[in-house]
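User: Just a sanity check before I run the rest of the batch. Below are the structure tokens for the first item. I only need the designed sequence back.
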């Protein structure tokens, strides 16, 4: 018999293994290789990028595959970038969100969660905003799950994101938005539709640190569904904008009543941005409605078109009109440069 030692797949160098892993999605990678031996397990658990689709984890009976029921999330101690596409909810709830606390090296977190009208609540958001992630820089929460209200006791969250620079959440309660702007001192970009403003608009107050200035914030995207005929957004803008001297890009998406006069006045916007000489990009969508058929929304739109402020920004202004016969009239104003 020959004394030659036969080559085995386990003898491949680390570089070859990692090259093979790059061609496989994590689900196939885990199901094919995890548990072969200690060395392979160490490779798998040392990955820095992890992307999961919930639809990949369930079978035809809408329950999680047996091989993933003991998904070793607690063993991933080096993950830096995590993405969860929650595209198919199922009865045995995926508990990955509850393991975020173990991702001490996490730099970016993206969750895209969509459910049916009778689907899951916003438990993801509640869990995330109670985590301590000292290195987290990017947080993106998409999908209709994040349109639902957060279940937060006393409107206070215990998150710790000292390195956070970029955040997008579909919707956030007003108090949490202020908490994020106050505590995340490295923020460059903030994007969210806000709800839950104080009942009295005059009682809107900014934390001391925000009033001292947010010099690093260069991109701001805010929105509101205002059904209460109050000037809550305009009041917030008047307080917040002087605190953002280096704002470069501003996006607004607001639905309001015809009585919100400031938001529908181009001169008010021009005054608001008067000291923001760094502002280069704007994108507005303002939708308002009225039951007063004598109110001419087209005149308001024309005032925006005639505004020298928006002309200097080379803004393209378009509009749409819709009438619900004998009930209300709505206008959509789009401004973008």
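Assistant: Here's the designed sequence for the first item:
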């Amino acid at each position: 018999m020959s004394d030659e030692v036969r080559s085995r797949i386990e003898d491949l160098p680390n570089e070859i293994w990692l090259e093979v892993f790059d061609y496989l999605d994590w689900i196939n990678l885990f199901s094919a290789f995890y548990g072969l031996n200690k060395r392979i397990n160490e490779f798998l658990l040392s990955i820095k990028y992890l992307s999961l689709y919930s639809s990949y984890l369930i079978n035809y009976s809408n329950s999680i595959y047996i091989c993933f029921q003991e998904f070793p999330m607690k063993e991933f101690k080096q993950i830096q970038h995590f993405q969860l596409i929650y595209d198919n909810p199922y009865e045995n709830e995926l508990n990955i969100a509850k393991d975020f606390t173990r991702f001490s090296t996490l730099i970016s977190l993206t969750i895209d969660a969509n459910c049916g009208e009778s689907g899951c609540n916003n438990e993801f958001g509640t869990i995330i905003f109670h985590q301590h992630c000292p290195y987290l820089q990017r947080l993106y929460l998409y999908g209709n799950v994040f349109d639902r209200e957060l279940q937060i006791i006393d409107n206070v969250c215990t998150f710790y994101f000292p390195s956070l620079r970029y955040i997008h959440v579909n919707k956030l309660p007003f108090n949490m938005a202020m908490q994020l702007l106050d505590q995340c001192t490295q923020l460059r970009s903030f994007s969210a539709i806000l709800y839950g403003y104080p009942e009295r608009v005059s009682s809107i107050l900014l934390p001391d640190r925000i009033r001292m200035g947010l010099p690093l914030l260069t991109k701001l995207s805010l929105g509101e569904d205002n059904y209460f005929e109050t000037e809550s957004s305009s009041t917030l803008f008047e307080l917040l904008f002087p605190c953002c001297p280096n704002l470069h890009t501003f996006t607004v998406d607001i639905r309001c009543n015809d009585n919100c006069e400031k938001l529908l006045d181009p001169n008010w916007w021009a005054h608001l941005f008067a000291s923001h000489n760094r502002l280069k990009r704007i994108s507005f969508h303002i939708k308002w409605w009225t039951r007063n058929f004598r109110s001419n929304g087209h005149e308001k739109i024309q005032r925006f078109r005639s505004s020298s402020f928006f002309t200097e920004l080379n803004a393209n202004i378009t509009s749409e009109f819709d009438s619900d016969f004998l009930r209300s009239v709505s206008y959509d104003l789009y401004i973008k440069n």
